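Sequence decides. Consider this:

===
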Amino acid sequence: MEAVPRMPMIWLDLKEAGEFAFNAAVKKSAVSVPRDFEGCSTLRKYLGQLHFLQSRIPMGQGQDAAVPVTWTEIFSGKAVTHEDIKYEQACVLYNLGALHSMLGAMDKRVSEECAAGAFTYLRDHFPHSYSVDMSHQILSLNINLMLGQAQECLLEKSMLDNRKSFLVARISAQVVDYYKEACRALENSETASLLGKIQKDWKKLVQMKIYYFAAVAHLHMGKQAEEQQKFGERVIYFQSALDKLNEAIKLAKGQPETVQEALRFAMDVIGGKYNSAKKDNDFIYHEAVPALDTLQSVKGAPLVKALPVNPTDPAVTGPDIFAKLVPMAAHEASSLYSEEKAKLLRDVMAKIEAKNEVLDQFMDSMQLDPETVDNLDMYNHIPPVLMEKCAALSVRPDTVRNLVQSMQVLSGVFTDVEASLKEIRDLLEEDEAQERKLQELLGRVPPAPGSPPGLAEVSKECSKYLELHEKASFTNTELHRAMNLHLGNLRLLGGPLEQVRAALPTPTLSEDDKQVLQNLKRILAKVQEMRDQRMSLEQQLREMIQKDDITTSLVTTDRSEMKKLFEEQLKKYDQLKVYLEQNLAAQENVLKALTDANVKYAAVRKALAEVEHKWNTTVQTLVASYEAYEDLMKKSQEGKDFYTDLEGKAAKLLERARAACQASEAHRQQLLERELKKQPPPRPTAPKPPLQKKALDEAGGPEAAELGSLVLLDASLKGKQRMNKQNFLQAQPGEGLRAPRPSDDPLSMLDPLWTLNKA
């Protein structure tokens, strides 16, 4: 990924200056700076000199020397005027951050941290009411955007330097974290209204980048798994990277070609990695592929920070041009006092952040959401998704009947096809049986020449249709099973809403259970109240520190009294500190009470979770049945079309089978007659008087035996010759055959044998 094309970055427009009764030459050089690092240096110098001026002359809001200051607001283009020199400082500081963002978005990409530092200082040290583009929300958004882009620059360098995969993954994950913070700000309705038209474009780009850099993070986690020979983990990380990249591609519609090029490059890399890893694991390593949520999440590594801004740094501001106007001691004292305030704020914030971290971890472990701790209200209503399905079926009352009728028609056609194929098979089997009987009767396989064609083709086609029918039979069975599965649900959805509501599970809670719930909700409300109060006190402290300016007092205070003045001035924060200490101390008791309440809530929670699971399952099942209706109708129609076609083919094949079997039967009859004609004629003998069977037996000798054999042979042959289809099919080997009558036999030479046999 080290050669991946760069993603574009967001940069901010500079504000335009208006009226300010200050030296024209100084003003011009400050508001018309070149768009390069020299321009940044000029703005820093001007900012420092304004600070020096403000510390000596009362030019703040409401002070004696205040003059109008006008700047154009970025988003609306309106001119905004305040009689406050700090407004001039704030606008210059904003332009310093905007210019750094512009330079950072260029090829070198080395200025994003400076931009974040400028916006952070502006947010923390100046009022937010000057103009919309310097509101707290907008500045926080700008800070997160700049930090995210600074971390993005670091990520590019890390990939070019071939840093370790795990480190690159953590750097990329932090890019995602910064952009998520920025995205939350962009999704805020108040921020969106402030930004106007550019909000949508920024949001689309940031959302796309979130998925893109998440894909990069998981790509490098997969590479680390590869280095550790964890081939199952490698597959799931590469698969996750591919999924996230596909989401980024969806969100990249309308983005410039540079974005599309970067995404295509990433797809080539990640797609190739995933396909190779999956193939290797499937055919070589055979490791189980774990679920992604079972693996340790990638924790971001924030390796960039907002560079601090010191407006009085002489290395930046140059010599103080107002040094003779106000004693430097007063300025130095003011800086020292500012440091005391910053120290106080750092100490308080360290305590707040420590308690917040404990509280967040505790609440995460409890997995308690005050808004959903009891979701009893949801059981009083049919969910909208289900109401939508019920409404759709209410205007289609024939849904169930149409489905049943369609399946009945399908069953009828199915049965007809099955009957036709069975009859064809029976005809073929019967023909085979007759062939075997003929072979047994003649004692050999009948000669092939002259056999009727068509039976082999009929048999082959019958086998093919039977195979198709057997396969389709399974599908038909599954279709009927699916219909029976969804039919009851469709009837329920098409019925009265009271029946639908009654079909949904509802929890049954005792009075004790309800009391446990109420107690838990009360304590959770206390937790939220504690959070809100803590945030409010913190905000009050910040605002109080920001407004605390004792420069006027310092100018008139002796240097030896400075420390005492600081102590007196800092006492104004004691009351807020006490409130904060009480708030922080109360956390332990609140969490203990919450722990006890949660223990009692465990059984109720389990019961509610089970009912909710059943409720969700029931809703999903009913919705699935509705959505399956169209599919069932479609498949039913496809089945009818298939079997109608097969029925026509089977009917034609049945006709061919009948004709072929009849031809085969005629062929066997011809064979039989041919065999009879091949028998040699018996020797003629003188007529003798009729003999009884007993006389023949007594005569004995070879002549009598020969005569008896001829009689039996002749009777057998003539019986075969006379046999019609019905007698032939019923004859069995070894059974006696009826002696022929002279009128039946076309061979006149066998007439004496007929008389002898009859006698």
The radius of gyration is 49 Å. The mean pLDDT is 79. Strands lie at 17-20, 69-72, 79-82.
